[in-house]
Structure formats: structure tokens, C-alpha cells
Design goal:
The protein has a domain at 56-219: Dipeptide-binding Protein, Domain 1 (Dipeptide-binding Protein, domain 1). It has helices at 45-54, 110-123, 131-138, 154-161, 180-183, 193-198, 270-279, and strands spanning 2-7, 10-16, 25-30, 59-61, 69-71, 91-95, 162-165, 168-172, 232-238, 243-248, 261-266, 284-287, 301-303. It is of the alpha+beta class. β1 and β2 (10-16) form a beta hairpin. The radius of gyration is 22 Å and the shape is globular.
């Protein structure tokens, strides 16, 4: 049995050697349900545990590395050395992988990649993930001004920033932005344009995009349905029991996964999650760090708590030019 414990927001694998009840299935117990399965809407960890198994972004981190990227939907990772990043650092040429199919059997194209990225930018729901790529690609963090109205240059700026040349995606940045590839390793995975349009999503035109700006989550065909290129397909989402069942994609471009099913289920009580892990009914659980001591020493369970993480040291800003007159608190600390 291979199990994993999530401590805080960072994963720490737990290996257990007890009897495997379901060798073709992997069950992970978490504490929350997904908000939406639309990659342009979701900004929470629970949703992305599903999204990044059924969809694929252009790149991903190479296993535990926090620096090296490997191509997924892309055929190569751009660099100055391979000539796919311009000398001024503002133009990225990304060859798109050939021979990849969506779960419905239709081939993935560069047009799908372009449409998916434009949709991610233009959808821009309030407090959503679009700002992660709006800033580096368009130069501003939102498609809307302080008055809530759509900025007049958004469509022109987006289509200047994102285009295709044959089977290549071209990104033109207003200024160099070194982290752009690492952002694309987690966000804006590739969606099927034709399937989306058929099911009522944006048709890719200037005339209609504003209709899909800052939408409610339930209006998206991707809210509770998926059609990606990833190693697993969504079989069922039971919102009442907070349970996802993912089935193996036997047409996956790399090779079919060894697991037939993955189950992701929300279980609020830590004690229940712990008992299910001990009984072999779960292979992975979420636990806050203060609860780690309750999991240490369980027979057959080994906690690995030294995986690399992506984190940023806090920066503190102090106010200066303070008026000191009449302030008895100055110097009191």
C-alpha cells in the first residue's frame, strides 16, 4: 500500500506496508470539496487536485524539482539556449505536442492551446486566477478598471500577447518576466475549443467575449464536466458526499496509468481519516501539521516530511516620514 499524508498545504508521502485492499485504485481523503472544475475559474487546492489529473498545462515541474520543467502539452520548454526565448526576453515560441487527444478522442491543436489561454485571461472572474497571467502577458492585473467596467484595450492586448504560427504558440510580453514558464506549469491547462463551443462556451470571437467575463461558476460547461488530455477522466462527482471518482485514460499520450481509478473524497473529521488510513481504506489523507504526532508510530506507516516546497520569505513594509508629535507610542517597543 502506498499512502500519502498532506501536512498543512504541503504533501508528505506516507508509505504503508499493510495489506492492499484495492491495488488498482488510489484513495485520497481531504477536508474540502471542489469549488469548480473550470480551470479558468478555480483558485483552490481541492479543485486543482482534480483539474491537474484530467487536464494538462504546457509544462510541469520535473518530479520534486522546484526549478526544472518538463514539457506536457508543449513539445519543448523554451530557453535562450534552444532559441525559443528571444534575446530581449519578451517573445516565447512554444512548439505544441503532436499526437495528443482529448478524452473524447479529438486531437489537441495549437488553436486549442491559444483559445484556452485567451479564455483564461478574458474570463477573469473576481478574485480568480486570471491575474497570474494577465500581469505578465498584458501588463495589468485585471480586465476591468476600478469602476468595474472592462478596459477598452483588453481584446487587442490579449491577441497581441497570444497568437499561433502553425503548430507553435507565440507569447509576446510587454516586458521580460522570468517566472512566466513556471506559472504556465500550473495554470491555464489546455481545453477543447470545439467541445466547449458546442456546449455553450465562448466561441473565440471579439463580438462575444465580454459575455463570459467575470461569470458565475455554474454557467460554465466546465463547472462539473471535463474533457481534457490528462491521464485520468472524470467518472463521477458526487457533490452531496464530496467524492470524485477518476477513471484511467487508456488513450493517454505517454502511457496509460497503472491505476484504474483514483478516488478523492472529503472527510471532515481527522479521526475518521486516520482510522481509514490505518484500516487500508485510504491511501492518502490530509492532516494539519499539529496533528502529525498522532500519526507517528502507526505500524506499517512511514512519514516522509522532507520534500521541497515552493515558498517565499515574507517582506515587511514599514511606513516612513511619521509625524512624531504627540505620539506616546513611538519608542515604547
Amino acid at each position: 500500500l502506498v499512502a500519502a499524508l498532506f501536512i498543512g498545504s504541503f504533501p508528505a508521502p506516507v508509505l504503508a506496508s499493510s495489506r492492499v485492499k484495492n491495488p488498482d485504485s488510489y484513495t485520497y481523503l481531504t477536508i474540502s470539496d471542489s469549488d469548480s472544475l473550470d480551470p479558468a475559474y478555480s483558485y483552490d487546492t481541492a479543485s486543482h487536485m482534480v483539474i491537474l489529473n484530467v487536464y494538462e498545462p504546457l509544462f510541469q515541474f520535473d518530479r520534486t524539482s522546484t526549478e526544472k520543467l518538463i514539457p506536457l502539452s508543449a513539445a519543448q520548454v523554451p530557453s535562450r539556449e534552444n532559441g525559443l526565448i528571444s534575446k530581449d526576453g519578451k517573445t516565447y515560441t512554444i512548439p505544441i505536442r503532436k499526437g495528443v487527444k482529448f478524452h473524447d478522442g479529438k486531437p489537441m491543436t495549437a488553436e486549442d492551446v491559444k483559445w484556452s489561454l485567451l479564455r483564461f485571461l478574458l474570463m477573469d472572474r473576481a478574485a480568480g486566477p486570471s491575474s497570474l497571467l494577465l500581469e505578465p502577458l498584458l501588463g495589468y492585473p485585471s480586465t476591468r478598471g476600478e469602476d468595474g467596467k472592462i478596459l477598452p484595450s483588453v481584446w487587442e492586448d490579449a491577441n497581441r500577447a497570444v497568437s499561433t504560427q502553425g503548430d507553435k504558440l507565440i507569447l509576446r510580453l510587454p516586458r521580460p518576466y522570468a517566472p512566466i514558464l513556471t506559472i504556465l506549469a500550473s495554470w491555464a491547462p489546455v481545453l477543447p475549443k470545439a467541445w466547449a463551443v458546442k456546449n455553450g462556451d465562448w466561441d473565440g470571437t471579439e463580438a462575444t467575449w465580454k459575455k463570459y467575463n467575470n461569470p458565475s461558476k455554474e454557467t460554465s460547461p466546465f463547472f462539473e464536466r471535463t474533457n481534457g488530455t490528462g491521464p485520468f477522466m472524470l467518472e463521477r462527482w458526487d457533490r452531496r458526499t464530496k467524492e470524485f471518482i477518476l477513471a484511467r485514460n487508456n488513450r493517454y499520450w505517454r502511457a496509460p496509468a497503472k491505476l484504474e481509478h483514483v478516488v478523492i473524497k472529503g472527510v471532515n473529521e481527522f479521526g475518521t481519516r486516520k482510522l481509514m488510513l490505518q484500516a487500508g481504506d485510504a491511501d492518502a489523507i490530509y492532516a494539519d501539521r499539529p496533528l502529525l504526532t498522532q500519526l507517528q508510530g502507526i505500524p506499517g506507516v512511514k512519514i516522509i516530511d522532507d520534500l521541497p516546497t515552493l515558498e517565499m520569505n515574507p517582506v515587511v513594509f514599514f511606513t516612513y516620514n511619521i509625524n512624531e508629535s504627540g505620539n506616546s507610542f513611538l519608542g515604547s517597543g
